[in-house]
Amino acid sequence: MNNKLTFSTYAKENGGRVLLLFLLFLLALYELCTAGISAFAVICLLPVLVILVVSTFEHRMFLFWTLTVFNYLAQLKGMNLPIPTSLPNELLEMLLLALAIIDVQQAKFERTANLMLISLIVWCGFCTLEVLNDTCGIGINVATWYTTARAIAFQVMYAFLVFSLYITSPKILVKYILIWGALAIFACFWVWKQKYIGFTSAESAWIQTRGRATHILQGGTLIRYPSFYSDAANYGIGIASTAVAFIIFGITSSIKRHKIFFFIVGIACIWGLFQSGTRTAIACLMAGFMAYVFLSKSFKIAIPFTILFALLVFMLAFTNIGNSNQSIRRMRTAFDRNDASANARSVNQQAMKKYLAEAPWGIGMSIGYNNVPANNKYTFMATVPPDSEYVFIWIHTGIIGITVFLICTALMVFGACRIVFFKLKSPSLRGIGAGFCCAMISQQLGGYGNQVLMQFPNCVVFYGGLAIVYILPYLEEEWIAYEQEQIALQEERKRKKLEK
Predict the structure, then answer these.
(1) CA angle at residue 110 from 109 to 115, to 5 degrees?
(2) pTM for this structure?
(3) Spatial distance between the Cα atoms of 306 and 422, rounded to a whole number of angstroms
C-alpha cells in the first residue's frame, strides 16, 4: 500500500518526466526490434546527453577544459571517430559561445573589442564572399566552401572568442598553461614510446602506407616520428613553438615550482622536435627566440640569446658537428640550397604562379581534390600538394586573399606585441604575453614552410594563445595580487624547510 501511495505521489509530482522516460523506453524497445542495438544504445543515451547539457550551465569551465584536451588529442590514430574530426571541437566551441550569450550579463564581451577581432572580421568576411567564387566554372558548392572556410578562417574566430571569454582570472590562465604543458609533455613521451617501444597497430598501418614516403627515409634508417599529431611536420613545428613559449615562461616566472615545470616542458619539447625530423622546426625555434630578443626589453636576455643562436646557425650551416646523428643531419639540410625537396616545392610554386596570374581571387574555396573534372583548366591547381598553409590560402583565394590574410595576421601579431611591449608592467605577465607572441611568430614561419598553421592542435593553441595576450591588461591587477600570494606561500614553505 505504501509503495502504491509512494509511486502515485511521485507520478503526480513528476508526471511529465515519468511519461517522457516511459515513452523513451518504448522508443528504445522499438528501435531495438527494428534497427538493432546501435539505435537502441543511442536512445538510451539521450537522457545522459540531456543531463550533460544541463550540467554545463553550472560547470561550463568543464567544457572549456574538455575542448582544450580533445583539441590536443583529436588526431590520435586509432580513435576511429565515426564523425569528422573537427565536429566535436566545433560543437564544444559553439556550446561555450551559446552559454556566454545566454549569460550575457556575466560574460565579458567588452574584452573582445580589440584589433584581433577587427582583423578576424575582415578575414572571415572575405572568406564568406569567396562562396561566390566560381573560377573553375563547375558551380558553387556551399558544403565544400564551408569546410575550407572553417579550416582557414572561422575556427580562428571561434578560438579567439572562446579564449577571450573564458580566460577570466589568473588562476584559470595558470591552469590552462599547466594543462597545455602537461599535454605537450605527453606528446613528447608518445614520441619516446614510438621510438623505443614501438608504434601502435593503427600508427604502424598509417606509417607503412600513407606516411611511408615522407616518414621513412634514408632506406629505412631514419624515421620521422609524428607523436599523435597528423604527421611529423605538424608535430615538429607545433612542439617547436611550444618550446619557445615555455622557455620564455620559465625565464620570466617568479614562482619557483612554475619555473621548474616550464623549463622541463621547454627542454622536453626541444628534444621532441629533433625526433620529428622536420627541418622547418629548427628555423621556427630560432625565429621564436629571436622575436623574444626584441620583446624582452632586456640586454641581459638579448645578448646571450643572440650569441647562442648565432652559434647554433653557424654550427648547422657551416660545420659537420653532430653529423653522426641522423636527426641533426636531417636538420642540417634546411640550410642546403640544393636540397631536392625544397627545389621541388619551388618548381611547383612557379607553375602555380602562372595559373593564378589569371585567377586573382584563387580557384575558389568550393574546390576540393575530387570535384574538378580532368579536362578543367585548373585541375592541376586543385590536385597539386600545397606544401604550406600560405600556399594553400594562395591557391584557393588568390593573390587578393593571401594579401588580406597576411595583412590581418600582421595586424593581430603587431597588436599583441604592442600590448606586451608598452601596456604590461608586471615582468612575469609580460613574459607570458611574450611567450604567446613568440610562439605565434614561430608558427607563422611554420605555416610558410608547411601546411600546419590551421591543423590540430595548433590553430586553437596558438591563435587562442594570441587572444589571451589581448586580455592580459584586464588581468594585470589580479595577477599581481595572485603572484604576491604565491610568492608569500613559497617563502613560507622555504622558511619551514629551513626550520626543520
Answers:
(1) 105
(2) 0.84
(3) 23
